[in-house]
Specification:
By secondary structure, the chain is an alpha/beta fold. Helices cover 40% and strands 13% of the residues. The chain folds into two domains: 133 residues, Aspartate Aminotransferase, domain 1 (Alpha-Beta Complex), CATH 3.90.1150; 240 residues, Aspartate Aminotransferase, domain 2 (3-Layer(aba) Sandwich), CATH 3.40.640. The longest helix has 22 residues.
Length: 395
């Protein structure tokens, strides 16, 4: 096969239907949504349709959706905004050790601003304990942030239970749902979270656009000041093509979710089962079954260095990752895998495959044919242990 893209947790291809929906707002209806003339009215109307599409996808009122430039800005606005707006009540924040860097680095910034942050541990499959959260809460706690579905190992947290613990103590609860949207049902009214973040390019929408769900009545301090756009929380001329694209992408993703999830889950399970059976000393990182994202397979191989694995797979036309896309240029082991209790050398032998609705079983079989050869070649050269040779002719 020419090229196989198994790195959809990093970004996804734009849906053709999304591109068509966006096109008029680049070429014909290019007005500023704040302008009074008809060009401005067209842009404003398109923005509000998109807001309604995003809101409907997670079952919230449209007015509770704040458009941003993506997941990172949404996480920053929620965390910094809530921390500073509620600092008079307390300056203690609780999060987890396996959050995306957009959350972890923001928490580190807040620590430098005088806030105290507790980083909850996880078990060997990446789950947060209800009891650990209860024990971490203090009278100074104002915010809890727990990722809904992990970007590296696919662990789906029990957000409803965790949010209930925070709500019982009158503490704000935020969840990063960037990887979850369109890959599992996300109903904010059932989850009872106060803030939720998302990013369009993770579900076949355009890059550079995201959103924050903000429950009405929750106070935030803005990150930017200017014209007072987005309820005064995100001043900037609105990215109308991006908003239109995000609205269309999430609408399509929700409408087609059942079929897409079933397809991705079948391919994921096929990849996991055959890779583990055909490659000696291979393991799966994270949970199995329903508590794992439908599109995520994260492997660990003994005596392997992940960068070499990714590069050799790329030579075979297969795009994969050896950790989160934001940290692949770092020699530091994945903080998520370290949090599972894995040693440095085990973390460095990891490989993440992440699927989309465009992937096929034929592509999965090509990977299964290719990976034993890649692993054997790297193990024969490995300084980590004795070369392990085995017969790949049966693949």
């Amino acid at each position: 096969m020419d090229r196989v893209y198994f790195d959809n947790s990093a970004t996804t291809r734009l849906d053709d239907r999304v591109l068509e929906a966006m096109r008029p707002y680049f070429l014909d209806k290019y007005g500023n949504a704040s302008s009074l003339h008809s060009f401005g009215h067209d842009a404003y109307d398109a923005m509000e349709v998109a807001r309604s599409q995003v809101a409907a996808a997670i079952n919230v009122p449209p007015k509770d959706i704040i458009f941003t430039s993506g997941g990172t800005e949404s996480d920053n606005l929620a965390l910094q905004g809530a921390a500073f707006a509620n600092a008079s009540r307390g300056k203690h924040i609780i999060t987890t050790s396996i959050e995306h860097h957009a959350v972890l680095h923001t928490c580190q910034f807040l620590e430098n601003q005088g806030f105290k942050v507790t980083y909850l541990p996880v078990d060997s499959e990446g789950f947060v304990s209800d009891e650990d959260l209860k024990e971490a809460i203090t009278p100074e706690t104002t915010l809890v942030s727990v990722i809904m579905a992990n970007n590296e190992i696919g662990t789906i947290q029990r957000i409803k239970d965790l949010a209930e613990i925070a709500n019982d103590s009158n503490i704000l609860f935020m969840t990063d749902a960037v990887q979850a949207i369109t890959k599992m049902p996300v109903d904010v009214e059932k989850l009872n979270v106060d803030m939720l973040t998302m990013s369009a390019h993770k579900f076949h929408g355009p890059k550079g656009i995201g959103a924050l769900y903000l429950r009405r009545g929750v106070k935030l301090r803005p990150l930017m000041y200017g014209g007072g756009h987005e309820r005064g929380l995100r001043s900037s001329t609105e990215n109308i093509p991006g908003m239109v694209g995000m609205g269309k992408a999430i609408e399509l993703g929700i409408a087609e979710m059942d079929d897409n999830v079933d397809q991705m889950r079948r391919i994921r399970d096929h990849l996991i089962d055959l890779t583990l059976s055909k490659v000696p000393r291979s393991y799966i990182n994270g949970p199995k079954g329903e508590e794992r994202l439908c599109n995520n397979a994260n492997f660990r191989f003994d005596y392997i260095e992940g960068e070499g694995m990714v590069l050799l797979l790329d030579l075979k036309g297969i795009a994969a990752s050896t950790g989160s896309a934001c940290s692949t240029k770092s020699l530091e082991p994945s903080h998520v895998l370290r949090s599972l209790g894995l040693r440095h050398e085990q973390c460095h032998g990891s490989l993440r495959l992440s699927l989309s609705r465009y992937n096929t079983m034929e592509e999965a079989n090509y990977f299964i044919e290719t990976i034993p050869q890649v692993i054997e070649r790297l193990r024969m050269m490995s300084p980590l242990g004795e070369g392990v040779s085995y017969d790949v002719s049966a693949v």
